[in-house]
Every structure is written in structure tokens, then in C-alpha cells.
Amino acid sequence: MAVGRVTFSKAEREKLAEVLWLLNWISVVTGVILFSLGLFLKVEIQKWAEVMSEYGTFYVPHMLITTGLAACCINYLGGQICLDCADTNKFLRWKLVMMPYIICTFFFTSCVLAGALMCYSIRSQLEESLFLGLRNAMRYYKDTDTPGRCYLKRTVDMLQIQFQCCGNTGYRDWFQIQWISSRYLDMTNSAVVDRLRSNVEGKYLMDGVPFSCCSTFSPRPCIQQHLNNRTARLHYDQESQQQNLWRRGCRQALLDHYTGIMESIGLTVLLIWLFELLVLTGVRYLQTAMENVLLLGDPDLESYGWILENSLAEMARSNFNIIKNLGKCYQVDDDPNINVPTAAAEHEVPSQATRIQCSS
Amino acid sequence: MVVMKMKFPFQKRVKLAQGLWLLSWCATVAGATTFTLGCVLKTELRRRAEVMDNADVHIVPNTLMIVGLASLGINYFASKICQDALDAGRFPRWKNFLKPYFAASCFFTVLMLLAVIMSYAMKGSLESSLKIGLRNGIRFYKDTDTPGRCFQKQNIDRLQMEFQCCGNNDFRDWFEVQWISNRYLDFSSKEVKDRIKSNVDGRYLLDGVPFSCCNPSSPRPCIQYQLTNNSAHYNYDYQTEELNIYLRGCREALVNYYMGLMNTIGAGVLSIFILQGSVLVSLRFLQTAMEAVAGKENTEIETEGYLLEKSVKDTVMEYLNPVLKFLLLTNQVEEGATTSGATPAAT
Fold first, then answer.
1. What's the gap in Å between the CA of A210 and the closest CA on chain B?
2. Alpha carbon distance A181, B220 (integer Å)
3. Pairs of residues, one from chain A and one from chain B, whose beta carbons lie less than 8 Å apart
4. What is the pLDDT along chain B (347 residues), one digit of tens a residue?
């Protein structure tokens, strides 16, 4: 019992071939879109790669890029095939290629689906990566004279200004690290020395933040130092505190930014996957219809097209049998003609000399 | 005295018509591009409208938009005319339309050139507008509680961070203005009282700048206050420190940005002007060549085409005369009315 059996007349087959040719060309365009989405995502991740701890997040854009290129090639080939399929003579050229082509396209379509699902599932890994990356970036903020880290200060400042965020989880993260380099600390000053001594590890910690944490929405000039000391400034109440610095942590800001991008990309890729599935189904129908027409002999007759020849259970059973019999090619035991006593042999009597009387 | 006479055999006329048709469609696209460029420039100018004192410089994008729309119409008609030009039966219906058409087209094409010239000439006006606007912005920086001025602080901060600039001419402009509001000054503090007393107008002036002047590329944390006091900070020299805050003034930064934008747009519009001019010249040649064919039996003869029938001066007078006559006529009517009004009074 075939799965999804549909009858196709000659005109319908030709129409199907034309429509599929057009759809394949549209798929080439969607393949280009997929490629450019992958490229865009790669560029976006590259922009802030310095505050991400590992480059594990790169496999999503690479997957999209390769799938996009594969889509262009496969669908271009599909367009050529479908163009030829309208005519039974030209179809003979492609007959042997069709089945492998359909299997290839099926695997490729599942890759597209995997790509779409990856876009949605990357959030937790991204969060971990950003947490570690931002922590390191803030730790090395003061090392503007160390090669390899000299631009980290600028990157973190630009990040905080652009995404309107401060610190890893919040602005208090800056209180726990020394972000002023020792080169700019006056070691002869008693206040500085006291502060250094009061810390176990000899770090210069203070309740202050860099200028890039300052909020542009605050009505008063930015307060960066002595943030924990309420009495240090006039009217430094709750409301002033709320508006003074950026409240959001940079990890949350970047996570929201990238999750938004990946969700839109994931949605687009899902739509492209549905479209590819449609094209694949159409090509399968065309292939089976053309093969059946060839079996019937007359190209003008109606033929059946289907997705699967037998039901899924039967196909599984037959495949299982094939696999079971694979290793038994050369075994003699199963040959049904050996050692079965024939009916004639049972009744066989040893030949005796009998006299045949010649009758005249 | 005919201006620029050229011979046009039949094949050359056909080629001219075909080339002109293609050219006019390119020019239509170019006209749409001009309109888009005008819109882009206007949007960019409006984004920073709060630091500009007047909108005089907006005449450049407005002109570009008008010219863009006009050239869409001009080129549409040009393509229609050249389609009909080779057909002797359909060409005569354009006869009365062509003279005002050419007058209008020349006017708008010259206007396109004027827009490009203006974009270079308006630099001075833009600069003075920005000077006044920025001065006001810096002056009202502290007035975040005054209606109408509450967003000045935000605008100036964002402007300084985006264009990487500080102050009007440079960062010292902040030293001359009280940019910290009295609401946040502790008047019981001796230091505040001294500073206010030392100033003639009773303003709280200090040698410090807002945080938006800070340069992220600086290797050390930003020094905003006591900028001129070398001893207030460790290892700091006011004269040689270059990376701490932005040294460029915002007026210079904005003028450079807008002049760069207008130069790029001007170069594009200049090439569109040349394209449009060539469309009009070709159309004129085609028109005069086809007019000589009219009424003849053999439409494939060689004819002459020219740009202007009379010399340039005569043609200009020919176009201006109706306008002048119209103005003089209205004057004469007024004179007549006043004389007829005077005579009854006299009698």
C-alpha cells in the first residue's frame, strides 16, 4: 500500500516539472539568503568576540554558511533535473541519479532543520561564554600596557556605552576588581597605601566605576566615585541612584541582543526548511511518476506517483530483512534445493532386469 | 545665426531616437536617486536640529528633492517624445508642447547645478548656525528641570560621545559655563562658597568637563575634574596629555561630517546633471531634425539639426519678452486706472 499515492496525467506531469523548476530556482535564492544570514551572524559575533570566552558559538554561523552554499548547488542541480523531467526521453539521462539526489536532498534538508533548532538552543552556552568572557575582560581592563590586552579597556568602554550596561551582572562588579592600573596610583600618598594594605591580596579596590557606566539620562552630572557613601553628596537619594548609572549588566544586554538576532534568523531558517521540504516532496512525486510511466511503456498514459512505495512498516521490514540477509550471501545451508528428498526418489525402486516380451 | 548645426541622415536619426529612449530611462532612475539623496540629507540634518540655530541650510536638500521629482516628469516626457519622434503621423501633436517643455527642463536642470553650488556655499551659514546652537546647548546643559531645555544635557552628551568631540571650539568652553546645576551644589561647603565668591557673576565655574568628553581609547581612567592642575593627579601633564579627553570641538566635527556628506552627494548630483543635460541636448537635436522632415513625402532624407535657431541672446530675449510684456501690461493697466481716477477728480 503506497504512501501518498496520486495519479498524474501527462499534462499534470509536465506542469509539475515546470512548477518544480521554478521552485528550485526560488530555492537557490533562499540558499543565498541562508548564506548571507550565516555571514551576518558571524560578523555580529566577531564584533564582540573579545568579551566571549570561547569561540564555540562560531559553529552556528559556519553551519548556516555551508548549508546555504549546499542549498545553492543542490537546488541548481534540481532545477536542471526538473527541466529535463518533462520529457521521458531526457528523463532517462537522469534516471540513475534521481534516487541518490533525493536521498542527498533529504539529508541536506534535515541539516537545515538542525541549523534552525541550534539557533534556538544556543542561549545557555552563550550565557556561560559571556559570563566568563566579561569577567576576564573586566579583570584585564587596567592592563593597557600588556600586549594582547591593550585594547580591552576600549572594548569594554565602547560596549558599556553602546549597550547601555555596566559590569557583568551589575555595577557592583567593578567594586571587586582593581580597574585602575598601579602605574597611575601615587604610592607615596597615605590614603592609597592604606587602601592597598586593607585588602588581603594587595589590590586597590574602591566603590567607584569607570566613566562608561554613566547614564546619559541622568539629570545630574555623573557620580562615579564613592557610590556607597550616601552622605558624600547632596541629595543623593534613591531616585538619583537609579538614574545615575546604567542599571543593566552587560551579560544580560549582550544575551538579549544575540538571542533576538538568533531568534529571527531561526524563524527565517525554519521557513526556508518548510519550503525545501515542499520542493523535496514535489521532486519525489515527479521521480516516481516518471519511473512508473517508463514501466508502463507509453509516455502518454496516466501514472501513479507516491512518496513511499509500501507503507513505512513494510519498508522497515524489507530493509531489516535485507540487512539480516546481508551476511548470508555465501552460506550453503539455506539453499532450498539441497538435501530435500524428492518425491520420485522415495518411490524409486532399484532397477531390475525385466524381460520385455516382444509381441509381434 | 544657428547654434551648433549638425547633419542627420535617416539612420543617424533612428540611432539617436533609440539611444535617447535608453538614456531617458537611465535619467529617470537618476532623478529618483536625486530625490532619495535629498531625503537622506534632510533626515541627517533634522537628526541634529537641536544644535542648529536656524534651518537655512535645509534649502539644499529641499532643492534636491524638488529637482528629483521634476526630472522624473521631464524624463518621462522625453521618452514619450522620442518614441513618437520617428513616426511622422504622431510627432506633430507634440508641437505646441515642446517650447514650454524645454523652458521648464532647462530651468530645473540649471536648478540642479545651483543645488550643487549651494551645498559648497552654505558651509559658512552651517558653521555659524552650529556655533550658536552649540553655545546654547552648553549653556543650558544644567537646566534639566526647565521645560523646553530638559533634553539638552542628553543631546549634548550623546553628540559628544557619537562624534568624539568636546565643547564648541574645544574642551575649554566647558570651563566658562556653569554646567553643574545649583540643585546639586552643597552651599554649606566652604569650597563651593569660595568658588562662587571668586566669580563676578556668582557662577560655579570649574576646570572640569562632563563625562561624555572622556576618550575610551585613553590608557588611564578618565580625568574629568581639575584638568589644569598637574599636581592633583599622579603622573599627569595637562599640556602633553592627548588621549584623556576628546580634543576636537563639536562644531568642527559636525561641519566636517556634513560637508563630507554634501560633497559626496554633490559629486553624484553633478554626474546626474551631466546625464540630464545630455538627454535634453539629444532631444533638441532629434526635435529639430524631425521638424525638417515634416510635410515631405520621403521621410528618409538627410536633414539638419541644431540647438538654437537664433543666437543665444536672441533666444533668451524671445523667452523673456512674453514675461516682460505681461509685467509691463499690468503696469500700464495700473497707470491707466490711476490717470482715469485722477481726471474725474480734476474736473
1. 7
2. 7
3. 72
4. 778 888 888 888 889 999 999 999 999 999 999 999 999 999 999 999 999 999 999 999 999 999 999 999 999 999 998 888 877 778 888 888 888 899 899 999 999 999 999 999 999 999 999 999 999 999 999 999 999 888 999 999 999 999 999 999 999 999 999 999 998 998 898 999 999 999 888 899 999 999 999 999 999 999 999 999 999 898 899 998 899 999 999 999 999 999 999 999 999 999 999 999 999 999 999 888 888 877 777 777 888 888 887 788 887 888 788 888 888 887 777 666 555 544 554 44
The Cα A40–Cα A264 span in angstroms is 12
Written as one string, the DSSP assignment of B51-73 is: G-S--GGGHHHHHHHHHHHHHHH
Q: Minimal Cα–Cα distance from B44 to chain A, Å?
A: 20
B304 - beta bridge partners?
Answer: B7
The C-alpha atoms of residue B206 and residue B229 are separated, in whole angstroms, by: 11
**Are the C-beta atoms of A266 and A119 separated by less than 8 Å?**
yes
Domain boundaries, chain A: 6-132+252-309, 138-180+197-229+241-251
* Alpha-carbon dihedral sign for residues B232, B233, B237, B243: negative
- Do residue B184 and residue A185 have CB atoms under 8 angstroms apart? no
Q: How far apart are CA A303 and CA A292, in angstroms?
A: 6
Nearest CA in chain B to A178: B221
Do A179 and A138 contact (CB within 8 A), yes or no? yes
Amino acid at B166: C
Structural domain boundaries of chain B? 3-137+261-305
Angle of CA points B146, B149, B153, to nearest 5°: 110
To test the contact with chain A by mutation, choose from B177, B206, B234 the residue with the greatest count of A C-beta atoms within 10 A, namely: B234
Contact A214 B186 (CB under 8 A): no
Most distant pair of Cα atoms in chain A: their distance: 151
Nearest Cα neighbor of A250 from A119, A155, A141, A131 is: A131
List chain A residues with CB under 8 Å of B234: 184-186, 189
| Residues B298-304: contacts with CB under 8 Å, at least 24 apart | B299/B10, B299/B88, B300/B10, B301/B10, B302/B7, B302/B8, B302/B9, B302/B10, B303/B7, B303/B8, B303/B13, B304/B5, B304/B6, B304/B7, B304/B8
**What is the Cα–Cα distance from B117 to B67, expressed in whole angstroms?**
14
H or E element that contains B35: helix B10-47
